[in-house]
Design goal:
The structure is a single chain. By secondary structure, this protein is of the alpha+beta class. It has 2 domains: about 130 residues, N-terminal domain of MutM-like DNA repair proteins; about 120 residues, Helicase, Ruva Protein, domain 3. Helix content is about 25%, strand content about 25%. It has a 9-stranded mixed beta sheet. The chain has a two-stranded antiparallel ribbon with strand order 10-11. Helix 4 packs across helix 7. The radius of gyration is 20 Å and the shape is globular.
C-alpha cells in the first residue's frame, strides 16, 4: 500500500501538471470505485471544473476545485495515479480517466480495485471517516515530541500496533513503521507505555527520519507503486529491515527475521531490537 512518502511523491510529481488545468471529460470504467456521489453525478459535477490545488492528508490526495468541491482519492493497496500525455496507451488496469483541457489525461489505475474516490464540498470532508479522525502526521507542526510522548504513555498496546493506528498518527504504514522501529532499536512487541523518555525521543526522531528519507528517494517500489509520472521509487534500496528477511543486519550482522505483530508481517533484527 502506498504510504505517506509515496502519496506525497505522487502529489509533488502531479501538482505542477494538473493545477490550473480544467477537467473536460471523465470516463468511468468501474463505477464502484466512486463511493460518493454516484458515478453519473460524480462525472457531471467534475466536468468543466478547474483544479486549483492538489493537497495531501495522510494517505489521501485532495484535488481542490474551483467550485469549492474536493476530489478525494485513496489508493489503498494497488491504486496508481499517473499523468499521461496525448497518445499514451492505457493499460488494462486503468479504470477512470480524467481528460484535461490540454489534451492530456490523469489516469487512475488499480490492479486489485480497492481504491476509493469521493467528490464533496470542502466543508463536508468530515464525512470521510478516515480523514475526519486522522491524527497528526510526521514532519507536521502538530506532530511534536510532547504529543508523541503523551500519546504513547497512555497506550498499553504493542508499539507496532500503536504506530499503525491512523487515528493517532496519520500516514504511517507497515514499511515505515518497521523501519522506524529498526532505526530506534525497539522490539515491535514492546508495550508503548513501557518506553523510557529516551526511547520515546529516539523513536520520534526515527519516525520523522524514515518518512523524510522515503520522500527524498521518491517512495518505495516493490511491485505496483509508481509516482505521478509513472516512475518507480528508489527507497527500497535503503531499507534496513523491511523486505530483507534472511539478510544480515546492516548494524550488527545478525540475520533479519520476520514475525506477525498486530496482524501484520513485521521485519526486525532480533539482536538490535531486543
Amino acid at each position: 500500500m502506498p504510504e505517506m512518502p509515496e502519496v506525497e511523491t505522487i502529489r509533488r510529481t502531479l501538482a505542477s501538471k494538473v493545477e490550473g488545468r480544467k477537467i473536460v471529460c471523465v470516463d468511468i470504467g468501474l463505477p464502484r470505485l466512486v463511493k460518493w456521489p454516484d458515478a453519473p453525478e460524480f462525472k457531471a459535477v467534475l466536468t468543466e471544473r478547474v483544479i486549483i490545488r492538489l493537497a495531501r492528508r495522510g494517505k489521501y490526495l485532495l484535488f481542490h476545485l474551483d467550485n469549492k468541491m474536493v476530489l478525494v482519492i485513496h489508493l489503498r493497496m494497488t491504486g496508481r495515479l499517473c499523468y499521461a500525455t496525448t497518445g499514451v496507451a492505457q493499460d488494462k488496469f486503468t479504470h477512470i480517466v480524467f481528460g484535461l483541457d490540454n489534451g492530456d489525461s490523469l489516469l487512475y489505475a488499480d490492479t486489485r480495485t480497492l481504491g476509493t474516490l469521493y467528490l464533496m464540498p470542502q466543508e463536508e470532508l468530515w464525512r470521510i471517516n478516515g480523514l475526519a479522525t486522522m491524527g497528526p502526521e510526521p514532519l507536521s507542526e502538530e506532530f511534536t515530541l510532547d504529543y508523541f510522548s503523551d500519546m504513547l504513555s497512555k497506550r498499553h498496546a504493542k508499539i507496532k500496533s500503536v504506530l499503525l493506528n491512523q487515528k493517532l498518527i496519520g500516514g504511517l504504514g507497515n514499511i515505515y513503521v518497521d523501519e522506524a522501529l529498526a532505526v530506534a532499536c525497539l522490539d515491535p512487541e514492546r508495550t508503548a507505555s513501557s518506553l523510557t523518555a529516551r526511547e520515546v525521543k529516539y523513536l520520534y526522531q526515527a519516525v520523522n527520519q524514515v518518512i523524510a528519507d522515503g520522500i527524498a528517494h521518491g517512495g518505495t517500489t516493490f511491485r505496483d507503486y509508481r509516482d505521478g509520472e509513472g516512475q518507480r521509487g528508489s527507497h527500497q534500496k535503503y531499507l534496513k529491515v523491511y523486505g530483507r528477511v534472511n539478510e544480515p543486519c546492516q548494524r550488527c550482522g545478525a540475520i533479519i527475521a520476520r514475525k506477525e505483530v498486530a496482524g501484520r508481517g513485521t521485519h526486525y533484527c532480533p539482536n538490535c531490537q531486543k
